[in-house]
């Protein structure tokens, strides 16, 4: 046996193939034994049935976006929050925000919903409403305290994600924004598999900061999306610059040593959705759970966020104006 780890196969035959776990590309894969046993195929059949049921549940949602990031701390939940709030500025647009960051749910705080709980109705779990047209569901609502650590392995996380998708009664939504944890692990694989029968999934919004240490993981996110056939809506460069609130001078805080998000977008031919300035008002609004758009409607960060959301909505819903 080799003393070194073997790379995972890029040409996986798939668990439903008769060559599952037996093909030459399976050599060195830690899952080869499981796949060749046939159990993986049984699991896939169950997942397919779940995916069909989830597609029926989410049939009344017009557009689903999955917000992802390769690295933590780049502002993914901040972007997800402010995308949802910006879309909901139009009172005729119904928006849902689903937080599947099981181990680090931030949305209850950013939406000022920390004391809320999940309630059952005849039609399923009821989301918590921020406004009449903005509703939220988070695993944080299931915890006695947001300070409690969630020490769960993959199967339990996947079970909760499936329950959120199958049991939450969102009603008719124009947009469902899904906030995920950083990386490309259990939650991401699960959400893609469970939504594979949904024709209303528009794709992934990738969030990064300008420096190369963050963009390294963006490239992994792009590769993940390609390998699971998840469309990439575009890339958001968060904390792009700092605009002084007194003199309005723009300064670069995180130096884009390799060209920043624009270089990655050019390299992979994906759209740069926007550059969001580093702004204390964004952090303050998330900490306080208030709407950024009610605090300061003229700051560069607010204008950049609105423009970014307008770009997204125009691609899929040209009649929705923000």
From TrEMBL:
Organism: Leptotrombidium deliense
Cellular component, GO annotation: cytosol
A GO MF term: ATP-dependent FeS chaperone activity
Protein name: Cytosolic Fe-S cluster assembly factor NUBP1 homolog
Cofactor: [4Fe-4S] cluster
Subunit structure: Heterotetramer of 2 NUBP1 and 2 NUBP2 chains.
Similarity section: Belongs to the Mrp/NBP35 ATP-binding proteins family. NUBP1/NBP35 subfamily.
PROSITE patterns assigned: MRP
Protein keywords: 4Fe-4S, ATP-binding, Cytoplasm, Iron, Iron-sulfur, Metal-binding, Nucleotide-binding
Entry-linked InterPro entries: Mrp-like_CS, Mrp/NBP35_ATP-bd, NUBP1/Nbp35, P-loop_NTPase, YlxH/NBP35
Cofactor: how and how many bound: Binds 4 [4Fe-4S] clusters per heterotetramer. Contains two stable clusters in the N-termini of NUBP1 and two labile, bridging clusters between subunits of the NUBP1-NUBP2 heterotetramer.
């Amino acid at each position: 046996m080799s003393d070194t780890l073997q790379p995972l196969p890029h040409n996986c035959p798939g668990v439903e193939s008769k060559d599952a776990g037996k093909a030459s590309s399976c050599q060195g894969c830690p899952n080869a034994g499981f796949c060749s046993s046939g159990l993986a195929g049984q699991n896939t059949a169950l997942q397919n049935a779940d995916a069909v049921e989830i597609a029926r549940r989410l049939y009344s949602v017009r557009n689903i976006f999955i917000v992802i990031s390769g690295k933590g701390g780049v502002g993914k939940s901040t972007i997800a929050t402010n995308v949802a709030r910006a879309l909901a500025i139009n009172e005729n647009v119904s928006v849902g925000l689903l937080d599947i960051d099981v181990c680090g749910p931030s949305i209850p705080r950013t939406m000022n919903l920390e004391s809320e709980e999940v309630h059952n109705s005849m039609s399923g779990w009821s989301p918590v409403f921020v406004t009449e047209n903005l509703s939220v569901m988070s695993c944080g609502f299931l915890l006695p305290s947001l300070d409690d650590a969630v020490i769960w392995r993959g199967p339990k996380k996947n079970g909760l994600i499936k329950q959120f998708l199958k049991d939450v009664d969102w009603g008719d939504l124009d947009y469902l924004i899904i906030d995920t944890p950083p990386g490309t692990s259990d939650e991401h694989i699960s959400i893609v598999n469970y939504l594979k029968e949904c024709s209303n999934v528009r794709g992934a919004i990738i969030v990064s900061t300008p420096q190369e240490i963050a963009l390294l993981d963006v490239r992994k996110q792009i590769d993940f999306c390609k390998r699971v056939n998840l469309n990439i809506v575009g890339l958001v460069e968060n904390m792009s610059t700092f605009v002084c609130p007194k003199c309005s001078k723009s300064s670069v805080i995180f130096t884009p040593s390799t060209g920043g998000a624009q270089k990655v977008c050019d390299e992979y031919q994906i759209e740069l959705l926007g550059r969001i300035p580093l702004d204390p008002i964004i952090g303050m609004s998330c900490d306080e759970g208030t709407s950024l758009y009610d605090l300061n409607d003229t700051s560069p960060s607010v204008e950049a966020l609105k423009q970014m959301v307008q770009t997204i909505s125009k691609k899929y819903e040209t009649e929705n104006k923000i």
